[in-house]
Amino acid sequence: MLLAGSSLSAGDLPVEASLREQFLQISSFEQLQNPQQIEIDADAAKVAEFFASLAGSDEFCENTAKVWTGFFELTFARDDDENFARRLQILQKAGEKQSAAIAPEEAAHGCRPFTEHVKEAIKVNSARKDYYSRVSNGATHNVSLLYTSLEYSLLPLTAFFDRWALKFNQAGIPVLQNDFVSMDDIAPAEKQPLRRGMLDRGGRKQLRRMLRSWQWKSALAASRKDFLGVQLLAMNALHELRQLELRYKCHLALTLHFVESVGLAARNADRLSQQFARRTDNFYRAFIALQTSGVRLFSKVDLLAQPFHSAGIGIIVNDLPAIPFP
């Protein structure tokens, strides 16, 4: 399994220091394997800059957005990197600890919108896991495990976004207040999927190629703070994904969900940019970068779920709220 194995030990350090140490341990190990390498490892530099930015200025500045964007690309989009699974594992384990440490009354307070959204999704998927396992004779276990593991890996990062969003909220700027949709109205787990097909090898190749292109173009548009451009790219991607669904009579629900979420974030970013003299631009550049960098990784959950759709089991399809975009 992608995230299987034990986590690296970092003692009782605070979460940020612990994460930084564990990430840099990976690079230190690689350095030991290649003692001839004198230059600072580029990945280690990205990691160090990211965690250094967390203790930096109270303003979410241009450099902060650039550093965060590089870290998200390294962590979620570099699936051809030999350390990819190890980085995800570190975040997953930290996310599990963080989730357990948040008291229910604290989570319900409303000051952690991103974290609350991810925790709500984990709660729903964990509750439905047993139903899907029962009707599939345990065969859906790996789908549920991958999905919740990836969700846990987001939690350490959602905490950082919530911290920065709170600074804007305290200044009367509603950052992250309209970027998430409640899970209350999702379909029942028992609902059968409308489509029961699966992508073949050619379809999967087309999906990967399309998502790579969309990621690159969206990241470029976001780096330029062209949030209208990000919206247009999201609409085009949604059209292509739905055409792929129709052609193969299949579901790509989680992939669509991510692209819709990026489109919604870009629409909110554009609105707030105009209302507050571009003060929120750097924040939303990074927020969009996190989502776009993870879309290909989360799309693997869709592909794992498709065989169960052919058996009439609506895993993933039934577990996502409708996002009001476009």
Mean pLDDT over the full residue set: 90
> What's the number of extended β-strand segments?
0
Overall, the morphology is globular
Summarize the main sheet: none
Total count of domains: 1
Structural class: mainly alpha
Helix content: 55-70%
H/E series, N to C? HHHHHHHHHHH
For the termini, the CA-CA separation is 35 Å
Poorly predicted runs are: 1-13
Query: Radius of gyration, Cα only, in angstroms?
Result: 20 Å
Number of helices: 11
Beta-strand proportion: under 5%
Task: Report the oligomer.
Answer: single chain
Topology:
Layout: H1 15-33, H2 42-53, H3 62-77, H4 84-101, H5 104-107, H6 113-135, H7 141-170, H8 201-223, H9 227-248, H10 253-275, H11 281-309
Helix pairs in contact: 1-2, 1-4, 2-3, 3-11, 4-7, 6-7, 7-11, 8-9, 8-11, 9-10, 10-11
What would your notes on this structure say?
- Mean pLDDT is 90; it is low at 1-13.
- It is built from 11 helices and no strands.
- Helix 9 (227-248) runs antiparallel to helix 10.
- The radius of gyration is 20 Å and the shape is globular.
- It is mostly helical.
- It has one domain.
Features:
about 325 residues, about 0% strand, disordered N terminus
Write a brief caption for the model:
The chain is mainly α and 326 residues long. It is built from 11 helices and no strands.
